[in-house]
């Protein structure tokens, strides 16, 4: 049994970061586009390099408490082997990426040094 925390809907705003590589770029792009269309959420750029604390290529999905209950399970059901970080957007970047962070799939070690 995994000790990874499952996402819970206790905040007003969230980000989901979909992690991918060159082999999964097309699938990840399609997944993010589908999420935007199905749930009316904002989709960030597809980053083909590490950005911020994210050590892998990623795409950000911005959503709120209202979308959480349908979007997060949908992402989990449709992500295949991709890892997705779901975290609160409270304004405290360190806490958002640690205490308020949840994983769909395998967790990825973030570069948190920029938050100290």
Q: What characteristics describe this protein?
A:
single chain; 116 residues; alpha+beta; Alpha-Beta Plaits; five-stranded antiparallel sheet; 3 helices; 5 strands; 27% strand; globular
Structure description:
The protein is an alpha+beta fold and 116 residues long. The chain has a single domain, classed as 2-Layer Sandwich (Alpha-Beta Plaits), CATH 3.30.70. Helix content is 28%, strand content 27%. It is built from three helices and five strands, in the order βαββαβαβ. It has helices at 25-39, 65-78, 93-96; strands at 13-20, 42-47, 57-64, 84-88, 101-104. A five-stranded antiparallel beta sheet has the order 2-3-1-4-5, with helices on one face. It starts with 12 loop residues before the first strand and ends in a 12-residue tail after the last strand. The mean pLDDT is 95.
């Amino acid at each position: 049994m995994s000790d990874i925390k499952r996402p819970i809907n206790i905040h007003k705003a969230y980000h989901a970061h979909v992690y991918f590589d060159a082999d999964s770029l097309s699938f990840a792009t399609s997944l993010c586009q589908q999420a935007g269309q199905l749930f009316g959420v904002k989709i960030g750029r597809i980053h083909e390099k590490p950005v911020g604390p994210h050590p892998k290529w990623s795409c950000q999905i911005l959503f709120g408490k209202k979308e959480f209950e349908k979007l997060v399970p949908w992402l989990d059901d449709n992500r295949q082997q991709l890892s997705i970080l779901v975290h609160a957007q409270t304004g405290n970047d360190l806490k958002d990426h640690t205490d308020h962070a949840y994983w769909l799939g395998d967790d990825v070690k973030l570069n948190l040094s920029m938050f100290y």
